[in-house]
Specification:
Number of helices: 9
Radius of gyration: 32 Å
Helix content: 55-70%
Structural class: mainly alpha
Largest sheet: 2 strands, parallel
Number of strands: 6
Strand content: under 5%
Distance between the termini: 103 Å
């Protein structure tokens, strides 16, 4: 008697649940993992641990550290008398890499803050849309009752108009909900979480926290602490040392410091000159080899060092421009919030009065729609102004090199 062999086919794993269902057997489905609630501070902390862009910057810093150890080794002495210059350049290269890590940290914090605030903004706009939709539905029901009662003020055409505006409010609500979902997945990416990991923000409201910033102080802090300027200044020192290194090299095709590193690793933004003037930075330049006689190589290295110093000067000017513009935007959005704050309460009051008067047949449909639309619009504009103000604060934190609060003027204790 032979024993039969049972072979398990991969298709069985997908067919088995169907067989069980057809047989009436209970099938247990694993519940979806609940969304993780995180606050802004926790989101930033997680991002500093998990964001791949930051991990890449740290890996580049580690590579620069290895390059410095190689330059400091005894074996490197065999490369020639220029090794003493190369060691100084390797040290500068490591400092540049560390500054790039600091820049990546600032960019990561900014990305998390912006996307977190975007989720809160979308929540606020969803609230406005829900209130508008509820009000339009209530007014439509009131109008239907008035028409049935034989009202002379409200007609079937008024009902049709209310139906149209109710549909528009429903569409706005869907738009707000989609915006909130998009903001959440953007926040997840900014943190560096896996696509399958659901998250929700712990906060529910977008708050207005006015501050008075000294723009002069903000520019001063940025020019002291911005990693981009630190990198540009160190790169100018690096290029100036190359002149000395070429003077110690006799080869007609001599290597430069760029042969062991990529000075174009950072992507530079392009200039924009349309409605806004947004000049782009001056890019660095250094070939991996310089060819020619001793004098020719030194002369070319001198010119490239001059260019590197121009790059640093351009970076300084661009940083000052960026900070001053960010300060002006913060002031503008602060004024907008203050102007709209009182208007919101007035619009709410007028909307409530219009709805009461409409139910009492003391207000035509046109006037009701104007009051209702004005209330929703003012609320939405106020939320947007608060959001833009908060974003402007986050931008100032980035452009000042993380020293935003040092530029905030302290209130008199009198």
């Amino acid at each position: 008697m032979t024993r039969s062999t049972v072979v398990w086919h991969p298709m069985c794993s997908s067919i088995l649940p169907i067989v069980l269902i057809l047989a009436g057997a209970p099938v247990f489905v694993q519940a979806a993992e609940p969304a993780r609630k995180i606050g802004l501070d926790e989101a930033v902390h997680l991002a500093l641990e998990k964001q791949p862009a930051l991990a890449g910057a740290r890996a580049s810093r580690d590579a620069a550290s290895e390059q410095k150890r190689a330059a400091d080794s005894l074996l490197a002495l065999l490369t020639g008398p220029q090794i003493h210059v190369r060691r100084k350049q390797a040290e500068l290269g490591l400092a540049i890499a560390q500054s790039q890590v600091e820049q990546a940290e600032l960019e990561t914090i900014n990305a998390v803050t912006r996307t977190y605030l975007s989720v809160l903004f979308a929540k606020e706009q969803e609230r406005v849309a829900e209130e508008a939709l509820a009000n339009f539905k209530a007014m439509r029901e009131a109008a239907r009752g008035l028409v049935k009662a034989g009202s002379k003020e409200v007609t079937t055409s008024d009902l049709e108009r209310l139906d149209m505006y109710t549909a528009l409010a429903a569409a706005r609500l869907e738009e707000a909900r989609t915006g909130q979902a998009r903001a959440r997945i953007a926040l997840r990416e900014a943190i560096g979480l896996a696509p399958q990991e659901p998250i929700e923000v712990a906060d529910d409201r977008l708050t207005y926290k006015p501050v008075k910033v000294s723009c002069t102080k903000a520019v001063e802090l940025a020019l002291q602490h911005r990693p981009e300027l630190v990198q540009a200044l160190l790169a100018a020192d690096l290029a100036r040392l190359e002149v000395k290194a070429q003077g110690l090299t006799l080869s007609a095709n001599a290597r430069t410091f760029a042969a062991t590193g990529d000075i174009h690793a950072k992507i530079l933004p392009a200039s924009v000159i349309n409605g806004d003037y947004r000049p782009g930075p001056l890019g660095p330049e250094m070939p991996a080899f310089l060819a020619g006689s001793w004098h020719q190589r030194r002369a070319r290295a001198e010119s490239l060092a001059d260019r590197a110093e121009a790059v640093a000067e351009k970076a300084r000017n661009l940083i000052a421009l960026e900070v001053e513009e960010a300060c002006l935007r913060l002031q503008q959005h602060g004024r907008e919030v203050e102007l709209l704050k009182a208007t919101v309460q007035q619009a709410i009051k007028q909307g409530e009065e219009a709805r009461r008067a409409y139910r009492a047949e003391q207000l035509p449909t046109d006037r009701l729609l104007i009051a209702q639309l004005a209330e929703s619009q003012v609320k939405a504009q106020y939320n947007e102004a608060v959001y833009r103000y908060a974003i402007a604060q986050a931008t100032l934190h980035r452009v000042t090199g993380g020293r935003f609060w040092d530029a905030v003027e302290k209130e008199d204790s009198k």
